[in-house]
Amino acid sequence: MTLPVALYIVPTPIGNLADLTPRAQQVLAEVTLIACEDTRHSGKLLSHFGITTRTVALHDHNERAKAQWFIEKLAAGEAVALISDAGTPLISDPGYHLVSQVREAGFNVSPLPGACAAITALSASGLPSDRFSFEGFLPAKEKGRIDKLTELREDPRTLIFYESPHRIVPSLASLEQVFGSERQMVMARELTKTFETFLTGTISEVRAIVESDANQQKGEIVLMCHGFISQDDDEFPLKSLETLQLLCGELPLKKASAITAEIFGLKKNALYKYGLEQGW
User: Fold this and answer.
1) CA distances to 162, 185, 187, 208, 216 from 125, in Å
2) Which pTM does this prediction carry?
3) CB 3.0-4.6 Å disulfide test: which of 55, 78, 98, 104 passes with 39?
4) What span, in angstroms and rounded, lies between the C-alpha atoms of 196 and 221?
5) CA-based angle 212:218:221, to the nearest 5?
6) Rounded CA gap, 274 and 280, in Å?
7) Residue 203 above 90 pLDDT?
8) To which H or E segment does residue 266 belong?
């Protein structure tokens, strides 16, 4: 079978090699070229599946210049695949300039579904998933990090960040400084791997665990924070809504509303109505 000429966007496993789909294996075996961040890194994955397709480096430093070379290959009738070191290309990985230029040149771009750390983490987080914002990596320097988080402080959507091991402690400190110690969050680490871990709690609780356990400062990390809950209506203090949501994870909404109302001196029917609107 000969693949149609196109640039194929192929997600690769984020840890467990079994997550490379049969279709992805077929495409990678049948294209003429594979563009990848690191040919040595990707070579191990391809070797595992017996794929011998030629690989060519495409990374942040050469992507703009190299895109035209790949377009020439497409013009010559060659099918090309794009992969990253792990996960879906372009999601905090190279590929934007290549895809943009390939589309401008009039060639098809064909995406394959597959692994993505942000979506994988969110699906198991227990945080609201109906509306979310993926923000990639936070700035490395403290001022930039604080400025970025300040922009997002009152965003009502679940916020998703990637973070590296050597920056996880200062990033959690910045999250607590800007979002407050009581904001609910989940930290997912080493997804699909042997030491996969989810830490759930307030920002201060998760930060304390990470700071006291060096093992939690290793591996690939996804940070997810509950969106901002408005305090404009005095009937619903922020802490009461956070309590209601937590209780809904263990109890029916009606019971959770009654308990929350008793704790905070609120109207249980009003809390019940709010919970229904939130889908809790």
Assistant:
1) 14, 9, 8, 19, 17
2) 0.81
3) 55
4) 10
5) 105
6) 9
7) yes
8) none
